[in-house]
């Protein structure tokens, strides 16, 4: 086996590892609201999402084409040098994904990938190596502007949708309305999962195709190989089935208190925007779209509480994703370059494995799983048993819990 082929195999494996982290990092995008409202049981939700992500990955390749040819200026670099850039960028994206997952922050996996790739490209080639703007292509048109607009548009549309839903159902039996929208959420959450697979799996397809171009195994004008599509679809589906419980908890319980009509409105908005962007080849951040939709559903629901502090932490993570993932990508390229050759790739690959393992073990100290993902975000102190019957608030909480249990669809 030649050194270049070995590096290509490492790059492909690293890309699929990123796809896997994208899966469990972004499970919350599709299923957080359905889990929070009880429309689907947690484990059932992530398995359903995984299956639909798998199917969605086969529906389009427009985004893959954007990623493969819309970030790195291929006229500036080729061959082994391009492979090194792609590999370093992938490592930057994976480490940022794992770090934000540990913190339970729904940052953008897409922007982590793009940031890592941009950072490694700048480190290797300078600023001119990145396609910043080229008509309606390039980083500005395809990544930065959509990143700024998509959560705002999603929040606006979802707030209107939520307001309309509550307006239409005003005066109706609350139990019947909640139960009906829980059933509706199963459909809308499934559509978001399908949309996520259509949009996000393609980004890794584009990265692998870029690596194949660098190796000389493919030309930029070639169609995307079937094995690339299948492997990326399977990797993302597997990651989704693992369940990114920390981020599911943040989106489902931390940002707003979600009722079934809100969840339905938020998921419908997210699916429509993500599928539209995939059709036009825009690699949108599904995380930002879904977060904007959930925020909008809280704004549109009369009397809903929006936790602006949680939103502030999310927005901070969004703002830092591109530059910090880029910094990690640049650092990885520098390490690889200093050591040189295949040895440099192997050292960076080993560092990735070690860092990923450390983050995983650290997450076990305060584990979030399918059993506690729907716990209250800020649980109130429980009333003591002897005073519980005399405490109106405690009795009210018991009544609310009882009604919730009666109303829950709980499929699965």
Q: Which labels suit this protein?
A:
transmembrane helix; globular; Phosphate transporter; 412 residues; Phos_transporter; mainly alpha; transport
Overall description:
It is a single chain. With 412 residues, this protein is mainly alpha-helical. It has one domain (3-364). The protein has helices at 3-25, 27-37, 42-56, 62-69, 79-103, 109-125, 138-168, 174-215, 226-242, 245-254, 260-279, 286-300, 308-339, 341-363, 385-388, 392-407. α4 (62-69) crosses α8, α5 (79-103) packs antiparallel against α6 and α7 runs antiparallel to α11. The longest helix is centred in the middle third of the chain and has 42 residues, at 174-215. The chain is globular. It is a multi-pass membrane protein. One of its GO terms (cellular component) is membrane.
Topology readout:
Elements: H1 3-25, H2 27-37, H3 42-56, H4 62-69, H5 79-103, H6 109-125, H7 138-168, H8 174-215, H9 226-242, H10 245-254, H11 260-279, H12 286-300, H13 308-339, H14 341-363, H15 385-388, H16 392-407
Counting DSSP E segments of at least 2 residues, the number of strands comes to 0
Point out poorly predicted stretches: 379-410
Proportion of beta-strand residues: under 5%
- Cα(first) to Cα(last) distance is 48 Å
Q: What kind of sheet is the major sheet?
A: none
**Please, how many helices?**
16
Secondary-structure element pattern, one letter each: HHHHHHHHHHHHHHHH
Cα Rg: 22 Å
Q: How many domains comprise the coordinates?
A: 1
Compact overview of the structure:
Residues 372-412 are annotated as: Disordered. The chain has 412 residues and is an all-alpha fold. Helices cover 75% and strands 0% of the residues.
């Amino acid at each position: 086996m030649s050194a270049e082929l070995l590096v290509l195999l490492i790059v492909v494996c690293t890309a699929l590892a990123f796809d896997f982290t994208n899966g469990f990092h972004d499970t919350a995008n599709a299923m957080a609201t359905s889990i929070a409202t009880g429309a689907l049981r947690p484990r059932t939700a992530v398995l359903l999402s995984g299956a639909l992500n798998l199917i969605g990955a086969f529906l389009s390749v427009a985004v893959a084409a954007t990623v493969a040819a819309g970030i790195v200026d291929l006229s500036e670099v080729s061959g082994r040098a391009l492979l090194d850039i792609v590999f370093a960028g992938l490592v930057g994206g994976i480490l940022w994904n794992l770090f934000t997952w540990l913190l339970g922050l729904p940052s953008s996996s897409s922007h982590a990938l793009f940031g890592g790739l941009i950072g490694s490209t700048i480190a290797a080639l300078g600023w001119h190596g990145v396609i910043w703007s080229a008509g309606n292509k390039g980083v500005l048109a395809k990544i930065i502007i959509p990143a700024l607009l998509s959560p705002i548009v999603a929040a606006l549309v979802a707030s209107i949708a939520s307001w309309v839903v509550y307006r239409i159902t005003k005066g109706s039996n609350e139990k019947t309305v909640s139960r009906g929208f829980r059933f509706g959420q199963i459909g809308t959450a499934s559509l978001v999962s399908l949309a996520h697979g259509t949009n996000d799996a393609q980004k890794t397809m584009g990265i692998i195709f870029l690596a194949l171009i660098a190796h000389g195994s493919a030309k930029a004008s070639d169609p995307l190989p079937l094995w690339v599509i299948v492997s990326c679809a399977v990797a993302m589906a597997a990651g989704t089935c693992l369940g990114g419980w920390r981020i599911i908890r943040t989106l489902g319980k931390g940002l707003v208190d979600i009722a079934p009509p809100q969840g339905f409105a938020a998921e419908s908005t997210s699916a429509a925007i993500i599928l539209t962007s995939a059709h036009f080849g825009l690699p949108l951040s599904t995380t930002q779209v879904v977060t904007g939709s959930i925020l909008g559903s809280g704004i549109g629901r009369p009397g809903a509480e929006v936790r602006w502090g949680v939103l502030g932490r999310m927005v901070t993570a969004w703002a830092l994703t591109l530059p910090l993932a880029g910094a990690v990508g640049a650092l990885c390229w520098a390490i690889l370059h200093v050591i040189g050759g295949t040895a440099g790739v192997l050292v960076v690959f080993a560092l990735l494995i070690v860092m990923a393992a450390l983050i995983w073990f650290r997450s076990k100290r305060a584990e979030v799983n399918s059993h506690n993902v729907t716990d209250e975000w800020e649980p109130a102190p429980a009333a003591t048993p002897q005073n519980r019957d005399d405490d109106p608030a405690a009795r009210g909480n018991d009544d609310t819990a009882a009604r919730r249990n009666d109303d829950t669809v709980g499929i699965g």
